[in-house]
Amino acid sequence: MLANFNWKNATFEDLHLRLGSVPLHRIGMDPVPGMATVDDVIRHLDASDKRLYELVDGTLVEKAMGFQESIIGVYISTRIRVHVELDQLGIVAGADGPFLLTAGRIRFPDVSFVPWSAIPDDACIEKLSSLPPVLAIEVLSESNTRAEIDRKLEDYFAAACRLAWVIDPKTETARVYTSAAKFEVFNADTSLDGGTVLPGFLLSLKSVFAAGSLQKPTLKG
């Protein structure tokens, strides 16, 4: 896990590298880098011009979004939701569901799942979930960098995430992580298995990428 950022004698280049070299237009300046808090994330969420800012090292980083990624994220979350409801396995959240992780990090996975076994009986709905996503799914956008996603994965697994999927519409592949450093790559002809995190769940990657390509279904009859 990366250590907390040391601002003493640091440069903006140092911070930019820490953030995963994300495009500069995604780094928020209200407040300036290093001064942002959880309250600032909530303030932007509640504003009339709602912005989804992740919080990393006291810096607001706008979540990368796009139409194709949204279609894919909704498709995956719907499939998981249907499966989860059959056996009442837990809750499913979408791309605007923020998680307050360890070290004051806030992340917005595109799709997330938390089993009922990880939710205390006295839990209540909060603006930011203090429960970690046990399954976190990221659908890559054009402005996501590999370093940025690697940092997200470190944050997820440091907060007790057990499984993460990184879906790449451009290459039509998926990386399945069981730790921040251990992953397997799957192509469009395979399916993802929920394993012990989401028992019995299978997700056809061919159907995922077909949904994101606006491929019209073949009419029967």
Secondary structure: elements and pairs:
Layout: H1 12-18, H2 38-46, E1 53-56, E2 59-62, H3 67-87, E3 90-93, E4 99-100, E5 106-107, E6 111-115, E7 135-139, H4 146-158, E8 163-168, E9 173-177, E10 183-187, E11 191-193, E12 202-204, H5 205-212
Helix pairs in contact: 3-5
What does this structure look like?
The protein is α+β, with helices and mostly antiparallel strands. It folds into two domains: 12-62, no CATH class; 67-212, Alpha-Beta Complex (tt1808, chain A). The chain contains five helices and twelve strands. It has helices at residues 12-18, 38-46, 67-87, 146-158, 205-212; strands at residues 53-56, 59-62, 90-93, 99-100, 106-107, 111-115, 135-139, 163-168, 173-177, 183-187, 191-193, 202-204. 33% of the residues are buried.
In short:
This protein is α+β, with helices and mostly antiparallel strands and 221 residues long.
Structural class: alpha+beta
Number of helices, counting only DSSP H or I runs of 4 residues or more: 5
Kindly report the average pLDDT value: 93
Assembly state = single chain
Q: What is the terminal separation in angstroms?
A: 55 Å
SSE order, one letter for each helix or strand: HHEEHEEEEEHEEEEEH
Proportion of helical residues: 25-40%
Q: Supply the CATH superfamily name of the largest domain.
A: tt1808, chain A
Low-confidence stretches: none
Give the strand order, joined by hyphens, for the main sheet: 3-6-7-8-9-10
CATH topology name of the largest domain, in short, is tt1808, chain A
User: So what's the CATH class of the largest domain?
Assistant: Alpha Beta
Biggest β-sheet description:
6 strands, mixed
Report the principal-axis shape.
Answer: globular
Share of β-strand residues: 15-25%
**CA-atom Rg in angstroms:** 18 Å
* CATH architecture grouping of the largest domain: Alpha-Beta Complex
How many domains? The number is 2
| DSSP strand tally | 12
